[in-house]
Amino acid sequence: MIEVSAPGKLMLSGEWSVLEVGVPCIVLAVSERVYCKIEKSDEIELNAPDIDIRNLKGKFDGQKLIWKRELTQSEKEKVILPEKAIEITLRYLRDIRKLINFKITTRSDISQVNLEDGTTTKIGFGSSAAAVVVIVAAILKLHGIGIIKKEEKDRIYKLAAVAHYIGQGKVGSAFDIAASTYGGAVVYHRFDPGWLIKEMSTGKGLNQIIDAKWRAFSAENILLPKDFILCVGWTKTGASTKELVTKIQEFKKTNEKKYWEIINSIKNVTEKLILAIKKNNKKEILNLIDKNRIYLKELSDISGSRLETEELTELIENAKKFGAAGKFSGAGGGDCGIAVCFDHGTADRIKDAWKLAGLYPINVEISKTGLREE
What CATH number did the domain enclosing 73 receive? Predict the structure, then answer.
């Protein structure tokens, strides 16, 4: 029996701009994790109780994973990412290893986050990305391939990114894949999707594509100040990232000049924030996170996409009252906001203010470790 786990994520800086090639973001791995157990079996079997998938059996035909029973539309939607993770990994392995059938079981801390009032809920911490990472890693490990060294994690990132990219309909930046793979605080530049699509259409083997240097991609850890405190608040509403992406893409088409003006402003702020973190300049860190928020709100307002909802605005303004810097984290439209400060007294006051405003502080910490064996 092999068990691996990977953390979820929250974005510190660079939302929306990271979708553009060459533009960085800073993403944080969080303490809630997704786990995957794998063992040899007579046939491939998937168990994912968190998404109500149990004893789903299939076979790999050398190219695709074929389930042994007809799936409902709901089941197809639920299993698309695990399915692609299994397919892509087995396609990578088929030319270098004798394939082994296996039983996989996943479970998630992320889907059941504990709130301070004693209840639990699902928060947008990137559980689907973390699940793809652990499935890829578990299958590799079962086939005798390492998963801990930097170059091994680079391989896992690429396999998981391909699976996630295909499973999501060729959208997304895979910054959440990077956070789950590498852990800690990651300065991330997405791969060039045009290059990847071209490579995959040339008839090259998946091994060649995965083992190659990916155009524009980089992921490097950065050390946060020792007293850096991340406060996370939930707005009690979820958000559809796909719907928001559609709205922002439409805004890009109809007002390209203004779109790029905002994207370049976010890019410049993120690049300056990377330098401020390296210099341990706490005042500048807070100032730049505030600026990031301003540009994101401008994108929200001018595009009509409501990225910063009324609840998120209240969360941010409550944090600012106590000298912290706040913003939404991720796509926006609801879900989570964050506040950054450098002392526990301020953090406590922020959380108390959030509670009074009807918002939910989440007990979460930054995870220094990414993918790991349990």
Answer: 3.30.230.10
